[in-house]
Input
Amino acid sequence: MSILRTFLPILRTFQLILAAILVSLPGVWATLAVAQDYPSRPVKIIVPFGPGGPADVYARILGQYLQETLKQAFVIDNRPGAGSVIGTTEVAKSAADGYTLLLMSNTQTANETLMAGKPYQLMRDFVAVAPINYSDLVMVVHPSVPAKTVAEFVALLKSKPGDLNYASSGPGTPYHLAGELFKAMSGTNIVHVPHKGSGEARISVIAGHVQMMLDAITTMAPNVKEGQVRALGTTGTKRSSVLPDVPTIGESGVPGYETTIWLGLMAPKGTPDAVVSKLNAEVNKFLALPATKDAWAKQGAEPMIMSPAEFDAYLKKDIKKWADVIQSQGIKIQ
Output
């Protein structure tokens, strides 16, 4: 009896542990089943930007790959407006089941500071899935603008404060912030003209309705090479291999100037971890393909491979980065 009394508490503890394991098994199997079955119907990727820009282009490239590998349709749905807030809000309100995803950029991380009153909070209402790529921007002007270099353009702006305009795809977008950062660091006054999308902004500059734009190299480089616009500088810390003859803005007129555009994938908060992990793994497989790297290098884009946790940390860091820039430079939505 004394031996039984000694081991009885141990047996009871073992029974409790075994019971807990058995209770959890249905949930474990259910989670595995969700990942195995996903996706069982079409997936929508909402792009909160207009057609023709980097987010739209790379959403379609990625969507095509996921459609082929996961054997289910990935539908790209452009919902531009309000500096990406319209489309982003729609995803935030969607079911957290992995069937509505957000193709986002540093527009969303900047908007955390610029648009405090928006109906969502990025890190509260979304979960990080995977980054996609990043690229430099290029400052271009219409050929009618007499400036041939960044230094000459700065001098022109200072001689005509408030007379010239620059285009963007909307408030809070990388193109807007790049323009405001340029204004602040160059001590110039050039008027922001927001558009509904980068495609519309690009057309405005090519047509001469707006004098300047800071646009992604991935989409504007062909227009530069065709002579439709004149490139004054790129926004990286080193020259772009796509436009090697174009100096950086930092080396040609505004020392220390640097900014990029990056893209990523998020889902509504509460999306099953198994689904997030599956999507992350598939995206990373695509980004690691030599064909992807080679094709994107020719366009000026660099793949970004991270786990969901790493991308989550990256997002938080980028939110703080842009908060510091926006507050220190006094950048506001006009």
About this structure: The CA atoms of residues 22 and 60 lie 44 Å apart. The radius of gyration is 24 Å.
